[in-house]
## 1
Amino acid sequence: MISLAGRDILHAWGKFIFTGVGLGLLIGVTLTMAGVYRGMVDDANVLLDNSGADLWVVQQDTLGPYAESSSIYDDTYRGILGMSGVARAANVTYLTMQVRQLGDGKARDVRAMVVGITPDGPCHPGQPGYLVDGRHLTRGHYEAVADIATGFALGDHIQIRRNEYTVVGLTRRMVSSGGDPMVFIPLKDAQEAQFLKDNDAIVRQRARTEQNPALNRPGVPGLLDAVIASQSTNPSVNAVLVQIEPGADPDAVAEPIRRWKRLTVYTRAQMQDILIAKLIATSAKQIGMFLVILAIVSAAIVAFIIYTLTMGKIREIAVLKLIGTKNRTIAAMILQEAVALGLIGFVVGKISATFWAPIFPKYVLLEPGDALRGFVAVVVICVLASVLAIRAALKVDPAEAIGG
Amino acid sequence: MDKQHVESSARGIRIEGLTKRYGEGDTAVDALKGVDMQVAPGEVVGLIGPSGSGKSTLLKCLGAVIEPTAGRMTLGQDVIYDNGWKIPDLRALRRDKIGFVFQAPYLISFLDVTDNVALLPMLAGKPNAESRKRAMELLEALDVAHRAKAMPSQLSGGEQQRVSIARGLVNRPPVILADEPTAALDSERALAVVRILNQMAKQYETAIIIVTHDEKIIPTFKRIYHIRDGKTHEEAGEGRSFD
Ligand SMILES: Nc1ncnc2c1ncn2[C@@H]1O[C@H](COP(=O)(O)OP(=O)(O)OP(=O)(O)O)[C@@H](O)[C@H]1O
Ligand SMILES: [Mg+2]
């Protein structure tokens, strides 16, 4: 027996390829949407991995530092360092902002997450793990290590708020949970950047402080200067990142910090839950909605195409029935055509998604598992979509082939 | 009825008192009102009648496409219908025992000429190679073998009709039903088609019934059934030869 579906497809191959490619682009979009979600989850995990922390110590009752703002004193880490099970602890600040690249013809703004770290060198919590080029931060000021996704190169000058920094190192896959590339700068600079006012505001604040008789007391020399200095420095950081000693239990180390320091402490698992279940939950639902709509649209397209193709073959189907073709054979023909259309679509979709995923500004992670699930969904959709056409075909009366 | 007659009718197709009523109640139409007919193997008969007389209805009953309301039909030794009873698998009966040739050839557009013909033995479970071999034999006999690899849309009307005749014959059915097979052809080709059908009837011992309006071919029948108002009466034809 020959394959009726195969012959029909070969005969009408133009139609099949055309609709298959159209469907394929739709499937490609669907796979990409799933990839965008996977990319967000992966970004979150990479963010946690790259922070090099086992515990995140944040302001009490906040979901900081990634999901909510958190502010704690920058000397807190010293107390934490002394607690049992803690190997290393370091302050960190996070601030998402526009970073300006300087230089003739290179001037542009890049949205980045500016991370303030103590320049203790690699392996310390908060440090960029490995560099693709250049060196780590060594000086306390005006140096930056940037993710290559920012587009910055070694030696570039960038401006963050009022200060200018030189890019001394480049790293990769260091992104915020929102997918923005990171720029690491020394903690002191970052603290300033986060809370620094512009020159006019500083001048106005200084004037106001001078006019305040409680602070500007002629009898107390040095008070005004001390107050102004305290006003313009900022003793806050967003979190303390803690590495625990090998073999220590994160929960056991976290518990005394919670109790004695009156701070909130998250373990890696809890942090992951915050990022994935809370921070990107809405985006995930958004993407889920898209997937549902795309699935419905694909199903409608396949159903419509297969129905139209079948209606175009009514005469043939009547003749096939008249000469004794089983209903099963006719149904199989339509089903196989629908599945073939789905296969063409899937192949085109997979190829186009692979092709365009790297061009996306945010990380798109195409997982083989998603491709497999997508494939199964495509086949199921095609089978369901052919039901309409099969019903119509089975209703065809063989007498129609004889006519009146 | 003499013994000889019974013998031959036992191998051909035979209907007795066949009636067909469409619909029910007030709107019921009695399309066939007791038709008797009998065609022996190797015989070609004409079925002619005015529009609405029941030709297509009779052909559909003979072709096991619709069921008669009452009456009896036998095909060779097999009883097909008997007053409301019918054999269970009409589909297989159509596939194995009845060949159809239509006014429009109705070839399967996505199969080439060979496979249009070979499809029938394939459907009956014959291997592809054997089916194609059989198809080629018939295509050669019908003088269209040189177009064996063409698609139906690439054939002339006459070629298409010959392919559809090959399809009708390929399973060696005991009965072939042809509905206006020459309506689309000029008189030369129409006569050629009827000549082929006569040859095939002889060669394969097939009973052939041709429904037609075609004045060009009516004189070729030896026997003609006239149908009028749902009833048939038999008449001798001119039986003119083709030369
Ligand atoms: N499906 C149907 N339902 C109801 N009545 C029908 C149906 N098919 C045919 N008839 C009626 O049965 C009668 C015979 O119809 P039939 O089609 O057999 O005629 P015909 O001899 O083939 O005519 P023509 O030469 O015009 O094709 C007509 O009166 C027709 O209206
Ligand atoms: Mg008719």
## 2
Amino acid sequence: MVVETDFTDNILTAKLYGEIDHHKASSIRNKIDSQTESLRPKELHLDFTGVSFMDSSGIGLIMGRYRQVSLIGGTLKVVNVPKSLQKIMSLSGIDSLGVLK
Amino acid sequence: MNVVNELNFSFLSKSTNESFARATVSAFILCLDPTISELSDIKTAVSEAVTNCIVHGYPDYLGIIYINVKITDTNKIIIKIRDKGIGIPDVKQALEPLFTTSNDERAGLGFAVMQSFMDNVKVRSKEGVGTSVTMEKTLYRTSYDKR
Ligand SMILES: Nc1ncnc2c1ncn2[C@@H]1O[C@H](COP(=O)(O)OP(=O)(O)OP(=O)(O)O)[C@@H](O)[C@H]1O
Ligand SMILES: [Mg+2]
């Protein structure tokens, strides 16, 4: 299991686990997008607590979900980013989207 | 500067091998006692280069990816990752942050990550022949004890 979802108070939380690379990204994307489309949450939270590794495929995943949830009028929050991922997060400039919490 | 240890391996360009490749390189350099952040930088850079071979080098077919890792007596790690795929028509443009030819949710950050996580990155490519990426990083903490 690389992603676990929860829907409470109109917030869809996707908890991500393990290593996020190009191989893993597509199944994570499919799961989150199908839930986003059916539940139409006000907020989508991507929780990175359990992520031990991520490359630029993870950045693509975040930017893609940002677009996806914006389409239905929701907002994205990226939460609980471990220290080890802060370097790639800041390099990507996604904090300028205002999603990092 | 002398090479004190060397690893060569090659594998099919399947996406399941992305984690295999970075774990293998990481296991090989563990003898240098890298810090957690050095190890994480190297794994990330390897993952970027290997993913590029899989996604861009061999877009609609499988090919072979070749990895060579050298460790020198000056604590330098030299990693060369090569494919015999379609090649890059304009390397300078490909290296620009956010440049991507993919419409598949890619950020265009792979080369930017390699350049910022490693000390030095060289890209050689020829259309129809393939691409090779050579990356170097000198580890800070320990010295290789002539084992
Ligand atoms: N091995 C390769 N073979 C052919 N083209 C390549 C190769 N590596 C990179 N490229 C080209 O260089 C471009 C930039 O690569 P880079 O890794 O920076 O971004 P990306 O792979 O498109 O996106 P990301 O790495 O963020 O997922 C690619 O879009 C592709 O056109
Ligand atoms: Mg890439």
